[in-house]
Design a protein that fits this description.
- It is built from 15 helices and 13 strands.
- By secondary structure, it is an alpha/beta fold.
- Helix 12 links the parallel strand 10 and strand 11.
- It starts with 14 loop residues before the first helix and ends with a helix.
- The strands form 2 sheets. The protein has a 7-stranded parallel sheet with strand order 3-4-2-5-6-1-7, with helices on both faces. Strands 8-13-12-9-11-10 form a 6-stranded parallel sheet, sandwiched between helices.
- It binds adenosine monophosphate.
- The site of adenosine monophosphate (AMP) has 14 residues, from helix 3.
C-alpha cells in the first residue's frame, strides 16, 4: 500500500511535524511509517501492526496522534501501554521530540517511581500518558487517573506484555476507556491470545505486516582492518578493487568526510557520490536513483543520511571510521546481508580505534 510515497511531506503532515522531523534528522519515513501514517490520519479504522523493534513504530503511531489530539484538554487523550519502564521512558522521549513546538504534556508512568510525584503530574494535566500496565492500573484503582476522555489507546509490544503476564491488567485498563476510542496494537509476533485481545477490545481494524528482516549479523561477514588514518583511502580502494562487483556504502563520521571521500574516489575514477543531510531532497533522490541503477557503486554517507535507505543487494558496508556506539554499528552492518544474501562489513580502524571495537 502506498509504497511509492517516500517523503514525510507526501504523507500529508503539518508543517509543525515536518519541522520536528527535520530537527530530529529523520529524512525519509520507514516502511511502517509509510503504511501506518496515512491510514491513521485519513481513516477511522483501528490498526494491528506486526513489526519488530527498531522499525520506527513509535513515529508511525505517534505522528498521527500528535496531529489529532487537542491541547485544551487536561485529562489524558492518549494512553500508550508498554511492557517495561525503559520503553515507557524511550517512547515518551520519542513522542516529546516529535511534537516539536506543540506543548503537549507527555509523561511516562511506571512502577518504581514515587507514586506521589506521578499523582501531582496527573493532577496538573497530561495529554499523552505512556505507562506500564501495572502502574497505570494502580492509578486507576486509586482513582488518581481518569481515562474517560481517552480517544487513542496504543498497545506497544503487545506480545512482550503478554509474556510478562500483563494481559488482564491491559483488559481492565481498556475497559475503563470510552468504547469509541481508537486503538492501535503493535506486536512482533501474533500469538492467538493477542489476536483474541484485538478481536475483543478493538473495532474493525486494518492489519499491517512489516516483513521480518534478518537481523543482518549472521549473514554479514564482519572484518576489520587496522590502518593509519592517512592510509584509509588506500585501504578503501584496495577493498573496492579486490571485490568483483563492489556495490557498497561507506560510512563516514561527518558531512565533510563524506564529501572528501567521494571526491577522492571520483578523482581516482570510481563511481562515487556523497550523501548527507545538507543535500537537497531532489538531489538525494537523483543520487539514490543513480545508485539503484548502479551508475554509482560507492556511496559515502553519514549515519543520519543512510537511515531508512532502501538500496537492495549491497555487497559491502565499509565503516570508514568506527561508529560512536554499538547500536549504530549494528544498524550499519545490518544494511548488507539482508534477505538471505551475504554481505561483507569492513571497518577501517586506527590502532586507537581498534581498542574501541
Ligand atoms: P522505534 O522502532 O520507534 O523504536 O524506532 C527505532 C529508532 O529509529 C529510533 O531511534 C527512532 O528515533 C529511529 N527512527 C524512527 N523512524 C525514523 C526515520 N524515519 N528516520 C530515521 N530514524 C528513524
Amino acid at each position: 500500500m502506498q509504497k511509492s510515497l517516500r517523503t514525510f511531506a507526501s504523507l500529508g503532515l503539518s508543517e509543525k511535524t515536518l519541522e520536528a522531523l527535520r530537527t530530529k534528522g529523520f529524512e525519509i519515513p520507514t516502511e511502517i511509517q509509510i503504511q501506518a501514517v496515512p491510514l491513521l490520519l485519513n481513516s477511522e479504522t483501528d490498526l494491528v501492526g506486526q513489526a519488530q523493534t527498531g522499525t520506527g513504530k513509535t513515529a508511525a503511531f505517534g505522528i498521527p496522534l500528535l496531529e489529532t489530539i487537542r491541547s485544551d484538554r487536561r485529562l489524558p487523550q492518549a494512553v500508550i501501554l508498554v511492557p517495561t519502564r525503559e520503553l515507557a521512558i524511550q517512547v515518551s522521549e520519542e513522542l516529546n521530540s516529535l511534537q516539536g513546538s506543540r506543548g503537549y504534556v507527555i509523561t511516562p508512568i511506571y512502577g518504581g517511581q514515587p507514586i506521589g510525584s506521578q499523582i501531582r503530574t496527573l493532577k496538573r494535566g497530561v495529554h499523552i500518558l505512556v505507562g506500564t500496565p501495572g502502574r497505570v492500573l494502580d492509578h486507576l484503582s486509586r482513582k488518581t487517573l481518569d481515562l474517560s476522555e481517552v480517544t487513542h489507546a496504543v498497545l506497544y509490544e503487545a506480545d512482550e506484555m503478554l509474556n510478562q503476564g500483563f494481559i488482564e491488567d491491559i483488559e481492565t485498563i481498556l475497559s475503563a476507556m470510552p468504547k469509541q476510542r481508537r486503538t492501535a496494537l503493535f506486536s512482533a509476533t501474533m500469538p492467538k491470545r493477542i489476536l483474541t485481545l484485538a478481536e475483543t477490545y478493538m473495532r474493525s481494524y486494518e492489519q499491517i505486516v512489516i516483513r521480518e528482516e534478518s537481523s543482518g549479523e549472521e549473514l554479514t561477514e564482519q572484518t576489520y582492518i587496522e590502518v593509519r588514518e592517512q592510509d584509509k583511502l588506500e585501504a578503501l580502494c584496495r577493498i573496492i578493487d579486490s571485490s568483483k562487483d563492489f556495490y557498497g556504502l561507506v560510512f563516514c563520521r561527518t558531512k565533510a568526510d563524506t564529501d572528501k571521500v567521494a571526491a577522492q574516489l571520483k578523482s581516482r575514477g570510481y563511481r562515487a557520490e556523497a550523501l548527507h543531510g545538507d543535500i537537497s531532497q531532489g538531489q538525494r533522490e537523483k543520487i539514490l536513483d543513480a545508485c539503484r541503477k548502479r551508475w554509482v557503486t560507492v556511496l559515502a554517507a553519514t549515519d543520519v543520511a543512510a537511515r531508512g535507505l532502501d538500496i537492495p543487494d549491497l555487497t559491502h558496508v565499509v565503516n570508514y571510521a568506527v561508529p560512536f556506539d554499538a547500536e549504530n554499528y549494528l544498524h550499519r552492518t545490518g544494511r548488507t546481508g539482508r534477505a538471505g544474501k551475504t554481505g561483507t562489513a569492513v571497518s577501517l580502524v586506527t590502532p586507537l580505534e581498534a581498542r574501541r571495537l
